[in-house]
What we know:
The complex is a heterodimer of chains A (436) and B (391).
Chain A: H1 4-12, H2 26-32, H3 45-57, H4 71-88, H5 92-104, H6 118-126, H7 134-142, H8 145-150, H9 162-167, H10 174-183, H11 193-202, E1 206-208, E2 220-222, E3 232-234, E4 237-239, H12 243-254, H13 257-271, H14 278-290, H15 295-304, H16 318-328, H17 336-345, H18 363-366, H19 369-389, H20 394-401, H21 408-415, H22 420-428
Antiparallel strand pairs in A: 1-2, 3-4
Chain B: H1 3-8, E1 18-23, E2 34-40, H2 46-49, E3 50-51, H3 58-62, E4 77-78, E5 84-85, H4 90-97, E6 101-108, H5 116-125, H6 135-141, E7 170-171, H7 182-192, H8 198-208, H9 213-216, H10 228-241, E8 248-253, H11 262-284, E9 291-297, E10 317-322, E11 351-352, H12 353-363, H13 369-375
Parallel strand pairs in B: 2-8, 2-9, 6-11
Antiparallel strand pairs in B: 1-7, 1-8, 3-5, 4-5, 6-10, 9-10
Amino acid sequence: MQTSMHIATLRFGLGARLGDPLPDDPQGWLTRQLSPLTAEPAVSTAQGMASIRAQRANPGPEPLPGGLLRPPDIIRVEAMIWARRMLATQAPFAERLAEFWGNHFTVSRRQGNVAAILGAYQREAIRPAILGRFEDMLLAVARHPAMILYLDNAGSTGPNSPFGLRANRGLNENLAREILELHTLGVRGGYSQDDVTSFARILTGWSIGRGAEFNEPEGFMFRPRTHEPGPKTLLGQVFQEGEEGGIAALKFLAGHPSTYRFLATKLVRHFVADEPPVGAVQRIARVLADTHGDLAAAARALIALPEAWSPLTKLRAPQDYALAVLRGLGAGDEAAQPLLGAMAQFAQPLWTAPGPNGWPDMAGEWAAPEQLMRRLDWVNGMAGRAAAAGRPDAATVAEATLGPLLKAETTQAIRRAGSAREALVLLLASPEFQRR
Amino acid sequence: MNRRSLLGLAGGMALGGARLALAQAPQARATDARFVVVLLRGALDGLSAVQPYADPAFAGLRGALALPQPGQEGGVLDLGGSFGLHPALGRLHGMYAAGQLLPVHAVAGPYRSRSHFEAQDFLESGAEQRLASGWLNRALSTMPPGGGARPGLAVGVDVPLLLRGPVRVGTYAPPGNTQVETETLAHLAALHHADPVLGPAFAEGLRARGFSAAVLAGTAPPPGNRNGFVALAGAAARLMAAADGPRVAAMELGGWDTHAGQAGRLNAVLGQLDQGLDALREGLGAAWGRTAVLVATEFGRTVRINGTNGTDHGTGGVAFVLGGAVAGGRVLANWPGLGELFENRDLAPTLDLRSLSKGLLRDHLRLPAAALAQAFPSSEGAPPQSGLLRA
């Protein structure tokens, strides 16, 4: 299988990095990456929460007390850490899984004043969980302040709770509905509006602390005084009052057959094809069911799918495209800022998905005329700089990134190009390079 | 954007050519306001941009250029029951809904020449003759002085008359955004052709940028840089958003002289305007709340369609005032009606464009009466318009 080395780097990785050897054993190369992800220590959720609060109290430009970074500075630092890691990583499959799950459990800068804890969210709730059980990731996400703030659960109040009765406050269904619709069962997973409302009651009290000043944690906090009393029924199951009831409900949802089907569909759509082959979805769903939601087992099953090895079926989302170009050109740390800039230019700025359903994962959503023109403009600039520097040349980049997957006519056009710059533009803006 | 494509604008050839000049206004004591003037060179057809669909004479006079009423397919976007915004201005309509867009109708400067170049000169001079300086520069010269003004922000773009004068202003243009060679584009178009998803999108992208099949085949000249306006607007906004950034900017967008095939051409350039103004809003971020933008053109166009599905030079037209500081969400118009036309061809103007400008200088930049008189000499007949800004 001459092409499988390249397919492994494209389909499951971030595109080959110029200078890195191609894997001679693609399956083994991918499997070896399935070990716990490292993460550089940066700003923790506790520090981020403190910064958000301090910013609110001190909106001016002067430094925050206690040497805290302001939220915009935190997100800048976090974005740079992310970009440098993605450019250089030797475990691109594992990073792709982290990106997939991060998108599945989207928390976006667009809502909820969460910018200061987005890096921490990925580090604390997503990355450690990508090879564990799905229920553990779901629990970590549902308890993370980023998700609680993003989907408005902090103030959701049981109408019959002590606080609800006194302050005449009530439910906010947002988090409960999105967990059912987007994180677990899927929109046709068989739940009703009553289930949404009931689940929202179950999750009342899942909130965040206000920090040391109030003698509360800088993070998740269960507030019994806002929790709806009494047992509740979700999908025919009864869950007891209290924080434990919520944990049990999340575990129940995590192991639901609808959830496994939904997750399998999304995984296969992401790694195999926009229209997921039914057999492949069934296989992944069965692995999830048989292993009680073991995500490492699902990842291994994905690379074992024969369907996953047909070349160039997926269109690269903007983030993937920018990364593939920069890695293909052998860029280093200096490309971190350009990477983030390109993603913004291509309408996919980091951690800024339009809604809780995350970034789209279908070619039709990204194959817009202006999108392709912006990609072209950008690689034209990249190609100009590379040509001015005298390296790398298009033939070398073509061999490293696409090899035999490049069509004969593209290879020929590159060979006949009038300049080094034109040759690189033809390669990097070619339809083959747009795909993975 | 290169200098050639900018200068090409003067000849009216480069569709959508755009340029930008920024002024580092002396630090104003009283206000941290941002003010942007966008000149639409070539005469925007105000009756297309803001359609008086409720005027009983409108549909009959305008024929195919009168779009369907709000709510119908391809219809105008309603502005409160009498006027409708062109559907290519969807982002502006969003601003209207947010109370940040004030369309102004039946507006014109004091000149009646119907010559683009005279009218633009007068519009920028702020007078009924061409002066050596522009009204915006003279307004700047009266703002409270402050230290730390940076000299030019960048070079490569010339300064429109509007901003020329005693106050030194910087110019800015984004660096080296060179265009891909047409031949390379033709190769890429061929390589994409067979791809069912990317092929049509790539072809459409090229078409939208003016690279028709004839251009790719080399039988027609390539277009100038047509995305300049949106990029410049975003760049300008980011510069202005900085605490020590320029307070005042002037931009321009060409391509409005729609004598033939107006519907399609206007659609494209209105879309650019829409995107560019939205890029301003987005780029200004929090500073948008302290911003007012004045969008003005040299005159309106004829009410009736000419023989080539276009319109000719007219009189009364449309201006827009927008921004987070603006009291929008309504149309400002003393509507003259289309039953009786100015010189039996044009929308009769009922508001002097200088009144709008003076209202913004007074209430937004907080300039005193003497400064207004200096910016707009001999304009006693055009008192500052009140109520443009949020209280």
